[in-house]
Structure formats: C-alpha cells, structure tokens
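does this look right to u?? magnesium ion version
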Amino acid sequence: MTMQAPISIAPGHVLPPRYITRHVGIFGATGTGKTSTAATLARGLACPVLILDAKGDLGGLGRPLVPWRHAQLSVSLMGADALARALDLSEAQAGALHIALAWASDRGWPLHTLADLRGALNGVLTAPDVGAAYGLVSPQSVRAVQRSILRLERGSPWAFGPRVMDPAKGQGVAVLQASDLAAVPGLYGAFVADLLGRTFDRLGEVGDRGAAGLVIMIDESHLVFSGCPPALVQRIESVVRLIRSKGVGLVFISQSPADLPDSILAQLGSRIQHGLRAATPRQQAAARAAAETMPGNVTAADVLGLGTGEALLSLPDDRGVPKPAAVARVHFSDLAPVEVEAPPVHFSDAPPPPDLAQVEAVEVAKLAPRWAWPSGWQVIGGAAGFYGLALALALAR
Ligand SMILES: Nc1ncnc2c1ncn2[C@@H]1O[C@H](COP(=O)(O)OP(=O)(O)O)[C@@H](O)[C@H]1O
Ligand SMILES: [Mg+2]
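got this back:
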C-alpha cells in the first residue's frame, strides 16, 4: 500500500494523514470552490476514494461508476422504514409495505427490484391467511403503494436492482453518478445509510492505524439529511462515529454546516469553510452558526467576506487538536467536464417502467392479474411448471 503523505490543502496548511478518518466537512455557497477543494483532497489521497456525485460535476475526478451496473439499492436490504420514506407513504401504506417485506422474507424470497416488491404486494393481497398471520392489508393501501412505486421507478429507474456495491473492492478514485438517487427525496439518504452500513460490516477493525484505507466523499450532503426519518439519521450517525475504526474517512460536502445534524457536525475533525451568502435571514443565521462553530475567533462577517477559492480552515494539528481557524486560498484543482454515460434504453434486470399516466387509472388486479413471482423465483417456477408438464405427458402415455 502506498504511504499516505500529509495532504496540502492550501499553502502552509496540511491535513495530517491519521486525521483523515476523523472526517472532513467542506462547506460553502454555490460557486465558492467546494468542488475544486474536494478534488484537491481526492488527488492527495493514497487510498481508494469513492465519490458520490449528486450533481454530475465531479465526474472528471476518476473512473465513472454507473448505478445500473455497479451500485443499486436492494429492496430487502434497504428495509421497510427507509423505503416507506423514499416512497412517501402514509402510516397505513407503510404498514402494508412492512407486511409485504416480512411475508416475502419469511418465505426466503429476496426482493431486489421494485418489480419484485410489486409481486410481493400482490402476493399479500391474494395469498390466503396473510391477515391472520401478519395483520390486515387493505387493497386501497396496496394500490397506493403500487402507485408510489411507479413514481419512484420513473424518477429513478436504475436505483433498484441486484447489483449492490461492494465498497471494500474499490480502487483508485471512483465517481458514482448519483444524480438519479439525489433527484428523489429520501432515496439519497437511504442509499448513503445502506452504503455506509455495508462498508462498516464488510471491513475489519484496523484500530488507529495512521491513515485511511478508504475515503467516501458525499456531495450534496444536505440531500442525505433533508426529510430523513430520525431512525435513519441515527443509523448514519452511529456508523459515522464507528467507521473510523475500520479505517474509513468520510467527507461531507454541502452548502452550509447547518445542513448536517449537530451530532454529525460534531464528529468532523477537519472543516473547510468557503464563503457563504446572506441574502435571507435564514442564510444570515446559517453564516452566524458556521462562524460560531469554528474554533478561534471567527465572525459571520469573516465567513461572508471569503472570496472564491478562499476558505476558513480548521484542521487538526499533529496531536489531533483543532487549530484556530485561519483564512487561506485553497489549492485550485481544475476538473475537465466529462461525458456522463446515458442509461441503456433496455436493461434486462429492470424493464422500463410503464407510463404512470396510463397505469394510475388501472386496477392493481389488472397490473398483475395473477400472483407474480419475484424475479429469480420466476425462473424456478417456470422450470417446475415445465418439468411438471413433461412428467404428466410421460405418465399419460
Ligand atoms: N481554489 C481556487 N482558486 C481559484 N479559483 C477557484 C478555486 N476554487 C474554485 N475556483 C473557481 O470558482 C469556480 C467555481 O468553483 P467550484 O469548485 O465549482 O465551486 P462550488 O463547487 O462551490 O460550486 C471554478 O470554476 C473556478 O474557476
Ligand atoms: Mg460544486
């Protein structure tokens, strides 16, 4: 493994390698230099870096990863709570979703795609004795969930499938095109929670080994937490706290520190605060809060007065103590624009979703006239049917 050298952020300001796993926050209004600073950091890292690119402007930093090939969410892995949030379900609808997932899980059926989930929902409606074992499921709730699934499919067609990412297998700098995920409220948060959770589970303890073995950069972090259910925030929080022992450093990139929950902000060992703008009372309050939470004597005026590429830096010293914030011009990293790979028109694992306008008026019963097998089971079911028929024909002779 390459030795990690101290990372020079700006003239006279270095980030000591052992504090990369104490996590970093990069904040600033649009156009103040966050992307360039993230690039400077990524280029200084000797370990694999995974960048979640929510806006499509970080592609020039490394090998592009497209979700339909590398980084999908699995319905079962995501779980009912996070999914209910992404689907924006009412309590009754979330109840139906819980039952469908539990019912499929008890039968050993993994649900990967939204089509699988649709099958399970139809299953709980049509299978006998579901009510007695799991509680009553109303057809209205299921129908509403089905409609929400369609909306999700149309907004983010490639988000769900069997190709979940293995964060432990990264090499060099990889940039995940996450704009599809970020476009649907709740989905980005669920994805980040799932990714961090799996990263944590996959990697072994390394203790305080001195440098990061993996860095994950989360662009547009505010989208992770806006409207994120408290249970999910808590899950992310606890992983952020513990993942350091696995040698993972996290970089949160967002407009304002106020975008992050306090409990996560409090865990950032390094902060790079670019300029903020204060056109509204809320933005003024955010600038004050940003200044007050920096170590040293920083005022809102200092944060508001930063020019493009300038930042207030609060980096730990060699002993890990945050140094008083100081203004510096961050090294500029130019990023060539890249061609973003367009999704395939047809994708064998996820057929193009039906047209929402047409389907909303159609009864669920017509959407899936029979009990639909979850994919995978479809093959087994089909094979069983074929051999059963062959056997019957042989016996009939
Ligand atoms: N450190 C820097 N020094 C000089 N110019 C910079 C620096 N960082 C950014 N810029 C300029 O500002 C523009 C916007 O920067 P960018 O990193 O895209 O901002 P953000 O990501 O905060 O919206 C860049 O195109 C670049 O010209
Ligand atoms: Mg940017």
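The pocket of magnesium ion (ligand 2) is lined by residues 34-35, 57 (CB under 6 Å). idk if thats expected tbh
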